[in-house]
Amino acid sequence: MRAAVGLMLSHGSVEPVMSRPDYEQTALHHGCLLVLLRGVGPSKPRTLQRAFEKVRRVNNIKVNDSSGATRSVWVRYIHDHPVEHNDWGDFQSHRRVLGLITIGKFENQTELNELCRQHESLKVRYGSTLYETRAIFVGPEADASNHTDGVDGTVNAHAQQQELETIGEHCNDVSTPTKPRLQDEYTTPSNFKAQAFFYREQDSCADLEPRICDFVNALFWVLESRRLERAREKPDKVSLLLAPFEKRDFVGLDMESRNNRKRCVGRVMKNLADLSLQAGLVEDSLSLYHNANETLRSVGDSLWVGACEEGLCSASAMLLYPQLHEMETLHRNASLQEAGTSPLRNMSEKWRASDATKKVNTPDANNISNNMLNNVADTRITSNSSSCSSVSSILTTNSSASGTPTTSSSSTSTISAATFGHQQRNGELPGNILKAEEITNYYRKAIINYSKYRHAAIIETEAALKATRVCIEQNRPLDVAMFLQNILYINLSMTEAERVKRFEIITELYQQIGYQRKAAFFQRLAALKHVQQGSQAPDWNQSYRLMLCSFTGYLLSLDPLEVLENAAGWPALQIDLVQSLITAARRLGHSALATRHMTFLLQTQWDNMSSTEQSEMAVQLQNLSAQCEGSPVPLVLENGTVIPPANLTDLPYCMELQVKDLPAHLRPQRIKIAKADSGPFLFTPIHLNSLDRRDKKKEKNKIAFHWVQNDLSEVSVRLRNPLPFELIITDMRLLTNGVVFESLPQTIILQPHVPTNVSLHGTPIETGQLDLQGYSTHTLGVKSNCRLKHMRGRSFPPNFLVDVIPALPRIDVKTSLPQTATFSNMNSADIVVTSASLTLYNGESASCTITITNESSTLQVEHFELNINSNVDQEVQKKIFRIDEKDLQDKLPIAPLASISFVVHIYAEADFVCPIPAASLHSTAAGGGEYGPSSLTHYSSNLSTSGHASLPSRVSSPQHRRIDPQCASFRSTMSAAQHSLATLSLQPASGTGPPSIGSQYTQHIEAQLRIKYSGGEALTAGYCRQCAVSFNLELLPSAQITSWDVLPAEIASQFYLVLDISNLTAQEMSLNYTHNKNILIEAKESCRVPIPVDRCSLEQVCAARAAEYAENMERELCFRTQLLSFSDALSKLCSTHIAERVKINWLLTGTDIQGIASLRGIVLTQAMIDLTTVSPLQWFISFQDTPVQQHGEVVCVVGQHSMLSIKLCNQSLQPLTNLELTIKFYQDYLNGIENYNLETRVAISGPNIISIPILEKHEQTQHICSVIFFTPGRFKTSIECVSRPQISTNATNDAALLTRSCPGATNLGQLETLASSQQPHLNIMLESSYDEQQTHVWKFIPPIEVTVVEQQ
């Protein structure tokens, strides 16, 4: 014992202290053999990666000991191990380096010698603990002359020969190798005593793993021998094992005392437990740890008690959690890196939630391990001294080791990449094993014991890390946090790099339990330690990497869209972190990264910053982007990390985005096609189009209108600048998808906090569906793609879908008339492209030439359609505007860049006839029973005298009545003594309809000539464009017919139409009212002109009656209550007859302004109608048996009677009923006075009023009377026949019955034929069917002039 103390003192006063903690050490490493795997020589380890991989695969072997039991021996490979750590091998045997493997590459003998020298120096350095060493040398390839010609058939033989060369065996039955052996070409130095393996660079190293297996096997047997030696030592002969810092603590102490003797025994027992654990005897180590713990605790040896407690935890963990070995093995095989981390460390979602104890005993774990074993069983290779074993031999389990194993020269080792067989896997766990919850308590006790010793700080740190990893496996996050927190309070003398390493390990462990926030905190601490003030070589690269990795803990993501979507975390911390990241990127010189992160900061934290901070950050971004412009593309770092693009979607802030339709005159419209007749059904499910309707519901963001290919399109954006300074935006474009779209750049300057409307334009190049996704901007030096779906806080759809139709031609429209200041106030005024103004007098004609130019360079105008809309009635419009569309269609198609012209003829249509008040006409019609002189007075009293003052009072101009010339209902009145006056005018406009056209006042007419045109593929698709020309017409009054009358003419076939015409212009007017008669009318004056007009023939009257009957029968069949009257049809016929035959041409003297005043719409009374139409009666009159000729003179003698014979013949197509023939003599004083009181001057023998009940068709009747004149003089004879309606009710009903029952009778002849075969009383109906509700007067014209003389 004293000799041992002397030996301790001889080592000097320097205390060996562990240089740094082994942060990768776990509880399972207590049972592993430590092997130093080192690369030597100038070559980088990557070139020797294959050799390193094969060595690392051998991390576990199965060894049969002398008793036949199978032990599982684990190996831990490390790249670096401080020499001073070997001094702690007595305290914890797993800290000793037991084996050395060096791998190097050489090209010549000199380099090989250097590799051997480095290997020997490592042997000397770790020689106190090394058991075995191996050297692996990779040499150059053989010369090309020694190679074969590359025949594929020799590949297998070559591989076999190479394997034999590498192993060093010679077989007589193998042919000469194609390559020379490396050991034959190169030799190792004489002082190199280690075993070396030679391989060429391209060799597969197939036998390397068996050789490493032999190497591990050798290590095991040396270890086993040491364990046996330690086990055979007698308690009273054992030496005191010491930790390096304890050597001076026992100087001068009595080593033979009882406590010291127990201390020696306890420490040796603890050392034996360590060796047993490394040798695969886990159960034996548990017992030894318990015994040593009790022995050392009794003497108060706290340091070694803590080591015993830690050993108990490690041994229990190996039995409870054998999958930890499996996970480490699988990870090493996947990553092939010593310092690699487990997938569990980087993926918190794999945090195991089940209890650790259940994992060991559940059959699922066994199934998983068996499946994994089957997957890697093909990698098993047996050693040279053992035969090939089956997969079942790997799964062979052995009973618990019992007895003392003895040395044996024969052993069999098996290599397994992931071996799961364990002797306690399927059996019961030993009784002295620590339970899962006890492991944590024992680790806590061990750490407390370690904390009592200042020199054991590193041991304490490693114990806390081991406890942390076990608690992670046990799913105890709070205990993990407790152990990790304890690490921070351990006082260690470390460099800054070691502090950074400690923070990184703590970060990694926190991530494994899901404490991302704490992990990020320590990760950021590590990043700051890399670049803290005073550091001589700040590592900004590592600082940047660590801060970038800490994003997850601060609930940040590299993708700004994800950050905005989650909206979680602590904004102040996040802003500070990103700013630190920007600083690191700048110090690294990565301007693009700094710009990207600043853009990320503005995009994600804009709402969390004050206005001052926003302004400052914007200025910083502008300064950063001046060095490197930001672009919306991902950035890839050197380590493969992808930094997604960041876009300034809120800078500027988009308040509104609206897709604009094309200008109205360029918008595509559907060409209307007449609907096909789908049959008698009003509804059919075939045309339901329910599928289309469902699609429309889904596409709520689809725009209703269309854009046109190659036409400039517009999107309106309303932007606001949230910054306190001007914001310049350049290269602002639309973002689209789908069809090819050429977007035009826009540059704008936004004032602070002022909303601004911006129009973005572009041209679709193709047809199809265009996807408008947003817009791109270039502001503050950053290009951003601002998509609608990423704009938060606004009700924007994710996109807009616009259909692009084929290209349409464009035309330019010009007119020959001057334009107006305003285009149009009508509907669809937005399609007007040009205008034309014209001033005309009523009745004047003009023309307008319109020139159409095809502005398209490639498309023809193939479809051209004209339509006129105005504020007047359609019928009047047709008379005002007239276009020769046939001539226009002959000019189509319009070639590209060509022009055509067409003429629009314009006529100033107006009512030249003064209107009549409605009340007067209706009142007259209502008094149907009053006829004769009294009706004229009644009619005249209701007329308003608005005519010219110079005209007679009886010729008046009623007002305020407008009747359509074709469909208006006509009314008339009878006049016995005088001819009344009336007018016809246009239908009055309703409140919503167009205004009327009059001739008394200036009229303004607005009209649009709408042009629809198309061509090319768009025409095939059914699309066209529509534009319009606005016409503003000013119609000035010219001539007006204020009054009119109808008088009998000198001949029976004509009548005189007497008109009062006023000149409403300010110039003298020349009026031509017949072919050879003109009259001048002063301005604002009027004149009266007679115009002879041919009467309307009986054939026309009969045709009008037939049309009336046909329409009435149709109305009866359709159950219409309102029937037409024959008087209406006849009045309309006479009015049309006059309008067609009378045209009044006027000319303003001194000018070329001329026009035509039409009598269209003139209204006639019944008396006028009777004079206008040819009489149905044919007169044969004779006086004294002498036929009376027209304008002939009859001479009679006073006192002599003269015979007057009157014969009537019915020339009409129907009978005449209720006729009264009246004979009157009167004297005309030629001054407007007629004397009918001639009782003393003339006498008639016989009645002067004769009633004729009925006068059949072509029937004649005659009346003869004698006349005696008492005084000489000139007399006139008025002979007239009056038809009065006197029809019985039965006859009327029968007539109605006949009308309803005879729809086939379309004319009077058919009615008459049908009536002859019906009841007798129908004859009466037909006799009264001419016009039973009107009184007709037919006179013999002219009156007979009789000259009475005294004597002949």
UniProtKB/TrEMBL annotation:
<feature type="domain" description="Trs120/TRAPPC9 fourth Ig-like">
    <location>
        <begin position="1181"/>
        <end position="1348"/>
    </location>
</feature>
<dbReference type="Pfam" id="PF26282">
    <property type="entry name" value="Ig_TRAPPC9-Trs120_3rd"/>
</dbReference>
<dbReference type="InterPro" id="IPR058565">
    <property type="entry name" value="Ig_TRAPPC9_Trs120_1st"/>
</dbReference>
<dbReference type="GO" id="GO:0005802">
    <property type="term" value="C:trans-Golgi network"/>
</dbReference>
<dbReference type="InterPro" id="IPR058563">
    <property type="entry name" value="Trs120_TRAPPC9_N"/>
</dbReference>
<dbReference type="InterPro" id="IPR058568">
    <property type="entry name" value="Ig_TRAPPC9_Trs120_4th"/>
</dbReference>
<keyword id="KW-0333">Golgi apparatus</keyword>
<feature type="region of interest" description="Disordered">
    <location>
        <begin position="395"/>
        <end position="414"/>
    </location>
</feature>
<dbReference type="Pfam" id="PF08626">
    <property type="entry name" value="TRAPPC9-Trs120"/>
</dbReference>
<feature type="domain" description="Trs120/TRAPPC9 TPR region">
    <location>
        <begin position="479"/>
        <end position="626"/>
    </location>
</feature>
<dbReference type="InterPro" id="IPR058564">
    <property type="entry name" value="TPR_TRAPPC9_Trs120"/>
</dbReference>
<protein>
    <submittedName>
        <fullName>Protein brunelleschi</fullName>
    </submittedName>
</protein>
<dbReference type="Pfam" id="PF26251">
    <property type="entry name" value="TPR_TRAPPC9-Trs120"/>
</dbReference>
<feature type="domain" description="Trs120/TRAPPC9 third Ig-like">
    <location>
        <begin position="1053"/>
        <end position="1171"/>
    </location>
</feature>
<feature type="domain" description="Trs120/TRAPPC9 first Ig-like">
    <location>
        <begin position="665"/>
        <end position="775"/>
    </location>
</feature>
<dbReference type="InterPro" id="IPR013935">
    <property type="entry name" value="Trs120_TRAPPC9"/>
</dbReference>
<dbReference type="Pfam" id="PF26254">
    <property type="entry name" value="Ig_TRAPPC9-Trs120_1st"/>
</dbReference>
<feature type="domain" description="Trs120/TRAPPC9 N-terminal">
    <location>
        <begin position="80"/>
        <end position="323"/>
    </location>
</feature>
<comment type="similarity">
    <text>Belongs to the NIBP family.</text>
</comment>
<dbReference type="Pfam" id="PF26283">
    <property type="entry name" value="Ig_TRAPPC9-Trs120_4th"/>
</dbReference>
<dbReference type="InterPro" id="IPR058567">
    <property type="entry name" value="Ig_TRAPPC9_Trs120_3rd"/>
</dbReference>
